[in-house]
Amino acid sequence: MLFNSIEFALFLPIVFFLYWYVANKNLKLQNLLIVVSSFFFYGWWDWRFLGLLVFSSLVDYSVGIALLHQEDQKKRRLFLTLSILVNLGMLAFFKYFNFFVDSFTNAFSFLGHPIDARTLNIVLPVGISFYTFQTLSYGIDVYRRKLEPTRDLVAFLAFVSFFPQLVAGPIERATNLLPQFYVKRKFDYAKAVDGLRQILWGLFKKMVIADNCAEYVTKVFDDYSMLNGSTLFVGIFLFAIQIYCDFSGYSDMAIGTARLFGFSLMRNFAFPYFSRDIAEFWRRWHISLSTWFRDYIYIPLGGSHGSRFMIVRNTILVFVISGFWHGANWTFIIWGLLNALYFLPLLLTKNNRSHLNTVAEGRLLPTIKEFMQMTFTFLLTLIAWVFFRANTVTTAFAYLRNMFSASLFAVPELIPWRTFIAVFFFLGAEWLQREKMHALEFSHMKLSPVMRWGAYTAIVFIILIFGGKEQEFIYFQF
Amino acid sequence: MKKFIKRSLGFILLILMLGITLNFFLRESKYWGNREYNWKIKQYKKGNYNAVLFGTSRIYRGINPLMLDSLINQDSIGQGIKSFNLATHASWFNETFYLYDQFLNDTSLSAGVKTVFMEYQNIMSINPKKLVDEKIIYYQNLDHYRFILKFNFYEVLRQPKKIFTSAYSINAFSFVSFINLTNLKRISTKLYEKDPPEHESINERGYLGFDETIKSQGTTMAGIRSFTDNIHVYLHQDGHNYNPVYYDKVMELIEKSKQQGIKLIFVLPPVRLTDGMMAVYNTLPKENKIELCNPRKYPVLYEPENWIDPIHLNKKGSVYLTHYLFQEFKNLQTKI
Asked: Using a CB-CB distance cutoff of 8 angstroms, which residues of chain B are in contact with residue A7?
């Protein structure tokens, strides 16, 4: 079920009503309702994959219980290995099997020993990359004794399958989300209203900005070989906006929906395109995944401690794995590698933490220096996005070659003016609210109810009028 | 909590009221969701026609009015016929009913029309994925919803096993009808108004054939066979177990047309037949139907080389179909 679908518009109020009016007296019942509705939400796509979700949950629940009573370090490690093998095994089979088979076949052919290997027609279960990482974090945290394993199976199932963030994150840590299922939730008016605002902003980002950009981007990437450099530049610029609005829009809707039910999810995006360097960009982009890699891969590998070689190796490894997480394609690996190359100079010169605050804090406009820094960082991300969007590495290089040609300074052949105007206003709104959690956070402003309701109504009408064709969220494929 | 619920409902009410009001004032085109039809109507208004064709792509791509006119006018039944093909892609029966109703209501369009050929179709349930398509939303209204409600009620009585499909269909249509009350997509459709992609190739009478040099897919033969298997059973079954709502709707259109001096003729092209559609078809008055769906009578219409896929005839096939339509129309006129 998509957040921007009619089904969800019916589903959400029904679950909300049952949650606060029928199951509100009993915590267990509330959690059970979350589990049932989450399974329904997930099963709407394909009920067959519910089995995988339950299997993954049961394995990690059992591993948690086993670790609770186990003091022998060897056995503890064995249980953790089991959890990792099951989760990564599922991921490897459903997401990477064909990629590995293809890559090996190509490698053997390249070496002059063609082999006949067959790929399988495997359907990727929605959200598998997200919930396997979430359950993995539980197993690892319990193993590290950072978290008391739960005996409450319903609470654990609710934690893994919690529908607002089940299929595209934020990838929650058990330490943050699981304890919220142990305590009785109270309806908080301010929190719920802000949740609705965040949902509205997420819908706007997805339906008005991302879906309209998508039409143009698809056209440009389909015909890139026949278009001039400036058109290709517009294409990748709009893709950058599309992917941000698509994914952060989903996160906004997820966080907002969770707030309606009394839950606080972690922030996933913090206005990343207003970053002054790549290190800041990665602190603001897909925060739940970046911090996951930091805590469970980068730091255990040694992080930024140790020799220069170790630092370089750890950084490259984490970025490449992050790229590979996005999809079984060399384009994602190169995208990760490119970001590592952007990041390493900052890390090695110890400049990776020079921008920890928000740009132009307390000011309306940035300084020229800040503006140049933001523009440069954005341009770097654009080049990397070409690899992310292209279907093959060859296409990505050809796209870049055509883009960086003399025609880069020609007049673009296709200019989607309406989309541009919408993007301009959208970026303006995000800039003005960049110190807040989301662009519709009005709590600090003294706006009259007429102004506020007027703004909400205008946004709803803009969505109704200009919303693009309903499209799946890009991150569902990951 | 009460405050939250009250304000949320208040906001939804505000949006609904504003939406309905805006919808009322901005209701410019009644066909805003069907760009092809919008475009065809503009072309249609440029000429004076006394015959019109309605239906899906089977008719749009299958009947060439220029050829039909020339055949009829050369023959003894010639009445100076001048026809226009208003059929559009995927205009299923419910949509065609709506478009034709609007056509009859707008005398600037229907005045002077004497004959209407309408593709006879099955009444299908809506695909959930298509629910929010503007092409589905635009023709939803309370009348249509009432029709769906009654139609499905009788479908369940006719075939109790259809209860879930029918319940789903009712829900889907009710929701879409509700959406259409406040749907403002028509504004953006107006803003983004574009001609149909193939508009330069459509001939002056609204026909566009499929290129016969494109070879039909391997599946075409199997596809055609799959719907020719039971055709004769359907063509000769009696119509006792028909859905009265379906029948009434079709008869209502015939009657409404008659009152405006129009003869409405349902054309059954080569198509996959179903029990439900044929139960009604077989009870219709003979002077209001033309059957081109008979492999024994028109074997050439079932030869794969005349098809581009299991749904559409190519240009060559459409020449045959137009010719047979002329012949059957002639037979009908002669009998009368």
From this structure: 128
User: A349: which DSSP letter?
Assistant: T
Question: With an 8 Å Cβ cutoff, are A6 and B179 in contact?
Answer: yes
Whole-number Å distance between alpha carbons of A472 and A2: 7
Choose the catalytic residue: A286, A326, A355, A438.
A326
Co-location of A254 and A170 in the same domain: no
Contact between residue B54 and residue B101 where contact means Cβ atoms under 8 Å apart: no
What integer pLDDT is reported at residue B130 of this predicted model? 67
> Taking CB atoms and an 8 Å limit, are B4 and A189 in contact across chains?
yes
Provide, as residue numbers in chain B, all residues whose Cβ is less than 8 Å from the Cβ of A5: 132
CB atoms within 10 A of CB B5: 14
Predicted complex: ipTM over 0.85? no
Contact across the interface for A187 and B187, Cβ inside 8 Å:
no
Q: How far is A26 from chain B (nearest CA, A)?
A: 17
Q: What pLDDT, in 10s, does the model give residues A359-371?
A: 888 888 999 999 9
- Domain span at A83: 6-185
Residue A452 lies in a domain: yes
pLDDT in tens, A300-348: 988 888 888 888 899 999 999 999 888 878 999 999 999 999 999 998 8
**Would the CB atoms of A461 and B131 count as touching at under 8 Å?**
no
State which residue of chain A sits closest to B188, comparing Cα positions. A465
Would you call A189 and B1 a contact, using CB atoms and an 8 Å cutoff?
A: yes
Final residue of a domain: which of A185, A214, A236? A185
Cis peptide before A170 (omega within 30 of 0): yes
Domain final position from A169, A185, A201: A185
Give the Cα separation of A147 and A139 in Å (integer): 9
- For A47, phi and psi rounded to 5 degrees? -65, -20
Asked if A430 contacts A440 with a C-beta cutoff of 8 angstroms, the reply is: no
pTM exceeds 0.80 for this model: no
Together in a domain, A165 and A37: yes
Task: For residue B181, give how far its alpha carbon lies from the nearest alpha carbon of chain A (Å).
Answer: 12
Tell me, what's the pLDDT at B66?
A: 95
The backbone torsions φ and ψ at residue B224, rounded to the nearest 5 degrees and listed phi first, read -65, -45
In a mutagenesis test of the A interface, which of B3, B4, B192 is the best target, namely the one with the most A β-carbons within 10 Å? Answer: B4
Distance in Å, alpha carbon of A108 to nearest chain B alpha carbon: 35
A326 is catalytic: yes
Pairs of residues, one from chain A and one from chain B, whose beta carbons lie less than 8 Å apart: 44
Shared domain for A381 and A441, answered yes or no, is: yes
First to last CA, chain B: 72
